[in-house]
């Protein structure tokens, strides 16, 4: 099953559950508070996902390591390599 | 002296030939006349120090700047058993470069990396150890976990990179933290099998390799690496790259 | 090895912003229906319909931006291909 199909399946389940509660399709006669909370849930889930995405990307940018040392080490090694290769007869 | 150094490299690698593992490093190059000697020097140094058996396969796509001539000089210095040249007439894809390169590879493991010094050979022994530790079919270098990281990226680049990676994780749930990285160690037969199944280009090709590897049940290990971007000033990450990345991602989402 | 100062500020700023947004929105959608309608807290929140309308408008705006971006990039691409 492709990832797309997995998503569609998951979304369908959530959608059906939401529809059942909001439109009282099973005639469950839930308290009106339940309906009140339920009807914005799909939008709520999207907003929460949006917040989660922003927070995750923000946190990962804040903790994205900057490798200063690696750059310095590379510079030093480049010098060393050029010297050594010159000695070995490389014409650059 | 140079002669003593070269022969000590050969002596220490003779030890690991008893273990039987040999590592073929694929270096696709295009206009890397300046960097090629440096990357090869570093590869020889770190393989020599660690004692693993190796060969370097340079796949030059008809570079107009004379990269191939430099490669020939390096072949004379380090030996034709260490430096193999598999040039091509013009710039063709990365996938075909890998296929072309492994055709004559004598190693049982293949390492792919960039030749522009953004990937440092010092991580290769860590890749090898990680592979032995878990028996992994492929080991991927990651910039996003552990003490992995980058040098030379501004805020915009970091935001785009993390944003794209987040989107990839949500859509594909790939079980690897860095999908667009191209510093990896593969078992040779694994690389062969994967390359023939992959159809994408550019960044997405590397993503597809890992996604297909998971599909086929291969195990993936990770090693944090530093990515030193010295080229960024010249080749920016533009709208074109972003749009084709998203297109490729959505294609993988819908087809795998 | 860490991220540089400016990157940390922006990143953590995003985290703080999304936490605040999440908290406000969760209270609005999930908590308020269980709170008496004469409680003072209702003053700080718009009528319930807006909890769906506002994100809806934001989403449309986002789609518009993304669509424009893709459109501009594709058009520039076609233009440079024609000139080739």
UniProtKB/TrEMBL annotation, chain A:
Query: What metabolic or biological pathway is this protein involved in?
Result: Protein modification; protein glycosylation
- Which UniProt keywords are listed? Coiled coil, Endoplasmic reticulum, Membrane, Transmembrane, Transmembrane helix
What family does the database annotate? Belongs to the DPM3 family.
Keyword presence, tRNA processing: no
TM stretches of this protein: 7-25, 37-55
The UniProt record lists the keyword Cell membrane: no
| Topology relative to the membrane | Multi-pass membrane protein
- Protein's UniProt name: Dolichol-phosphate mannosyltransferase subunit 3
Q: Where in the cell is it found?
A: Endoplasmic reticulum membrane
Q: Which domain of life is it from?
A: Eukaryota
Q: Which gene encodes it?
A: dpm3
Which source organism? Denticeps clupeoides (denticle herring)
Give the protein's biological function: Stabilizer subunit of the dolichol-phosphate mannose (DPM) synthase complex; tethers catalytic subunit to the ER.
Any one biological process term the GO annotation gives: GPI anchor biosynthetic process
Gene Ontology annotations for the cellular component aspect, listed alphabetically: dolichol-phosphate-mannose synthase complex; endoplasmic reticulum membrane
Q: Give the residues annotated as coiled coil.
A: 64-91
Instruction: Give the InterPro entries listed for this entry.
Output: DPM3
Subunit info? Component of the dolichol-phosphate mannose (DPM) synthase complex.
Q: What is its main location?
A: endoplasmic reticulum
UniProtKB/TrEMBL annotation, chain B:
Where is it predominantly found? Answer: endoplasmic reticulum
Which keywords does UniProt give here?
Endoplasmic reticulum, Glycosyltransferase, Magnesium, Manganese, Metal-binding, Transferase
Indicate the enzyme's highest-level EC class. Answer: transferase
Task: Tell me the pathway.
Answer: Protein modification; protein glycosylation
Its UniProt entry gives the catalysed reaction(s) as: a di-trans,poly-cis-dolichyl phosphate + GDP-alpha-D-mannose = a di-trans,poly-cis-dolichyl beta-D-mannosyl phosphate + GDP
Protein family membership: Belongs to the glycosyltransferase 2 family.
Relate the assembly described in the record: Component of the dolichol-phosphate mannose (DPM) synthase complex.
Output this protein's name: Dolichol-phosphate mannosyltransferase subunit 1
Q: Which gene encodes it?
A: DPM1
TrEMBL record, chain C:
Q: Could you cite one Gene Ontology molecular function of this protein? A: enzyme regulator activity
Q: Which organism is it from?
A: Denticeps clupeoides
> Its pathway?
Protein modification; protein glycosylation
* Recorded topology in the membrane: Multi-pass membrane protein
Gene of origin?
Answer: DPM2
The protein's name in its UniProt record: Dolichol phosphate-mannose biosynthesis regulatory protein
- Electron transport as a keyword of this entry, yes or no, is no
List the GO biological process terms.
dolichol phosphate mannose biosynthetic process; GPI anchor biosynthetic process
Q: Has UniProt tagged this entry with the keyword Lyase? A: no
Annotated localization: Endoplasmic reticulum membrane
């Amino acid at each position: 099953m492709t990832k797309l199909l997995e998503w569609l399946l998951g979304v369908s389940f959530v959608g059906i559950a939401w529809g059942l509660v909001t439109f009282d399709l099973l005639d469950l006669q839930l308290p009106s508070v339940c309906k009140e909370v339920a009807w914005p849930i799909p939008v709520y889930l999207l907003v929460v996902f949006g917040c989660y995405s922003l927070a995750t990307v923000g946190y990962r940018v804040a903790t994205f390591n900057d490798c200063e040392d690696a750059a310095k080490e590379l510079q030093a090694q480049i010098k060393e390599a050029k010297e050594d290769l010159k000695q070995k007869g490389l014409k650059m | 002296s140079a002669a003593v150094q070269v022969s000590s490299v050969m002596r220490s690698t003779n030890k690991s030939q008893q273990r039987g593992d040999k590592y073929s490093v694929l270096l696709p190059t295009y206009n890397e006349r300046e960097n090629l000697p440096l990357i090869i020097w570093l590869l020889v140094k770190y393989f020599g120090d660690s004692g693993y058996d190796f060969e370097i396969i340079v796949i030059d796509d008809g570079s107009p700047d004379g990269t191939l001539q430099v490669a020939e000089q390096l072949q004379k210095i380090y030996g034709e058993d260490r430096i193999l040249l598999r040039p091509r007439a013009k710039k063709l894809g990365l996938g075909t470069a890998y296929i072309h390169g492994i055709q004559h590879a004598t190693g049982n493991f293949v390492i792919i990396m960039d030749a522009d010094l953004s990937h440092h050979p010092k991580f290769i022994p860590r890749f090898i150890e990680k592979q032995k530790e878990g028996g992994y079919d492929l080991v991927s270098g990651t910039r996003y976990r552990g003490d992995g990281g980058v040098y030379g990226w501004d805020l915009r680049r970091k935001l785009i990179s993390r944003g794209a990676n987040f989107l990839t994780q949500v859509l594909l749930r790939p079980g690897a933290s860095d999908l667009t990285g191209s510093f990896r160690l593969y078992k040779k037969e694994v690389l062969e099998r994967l390359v023939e199944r992959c159809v994408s280009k550019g960044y997405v090709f590397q993503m597809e390799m890992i996604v297909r590897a998971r599909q086929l049940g291969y195990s993936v290990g990770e090693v944090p690496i530093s990515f030193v971007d010295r080229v960024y000033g010249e080749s920016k990450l533009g709208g074109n790259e972003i749009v084709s990345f998203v297109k490729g991602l959505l294609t993988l989402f819908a087809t795998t | 090895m860490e991220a540089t100062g400016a990157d940390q500020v922006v990143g953590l700023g995003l985290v703080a912003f999304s936490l605040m947004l999440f908290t406000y929105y969760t209270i609005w959608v999930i908590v308020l229906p269980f709170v008496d309608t004469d409680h003072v807290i209702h003053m700080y929140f718009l009528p319930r319909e807006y909890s769906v309308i506002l994100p809806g408008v934001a989403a449309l705006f986002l789609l518009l931006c993304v669509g424009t971006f893709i459109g501009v990039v594709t058009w520039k691409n076609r233009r440079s291909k024609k000139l080739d």
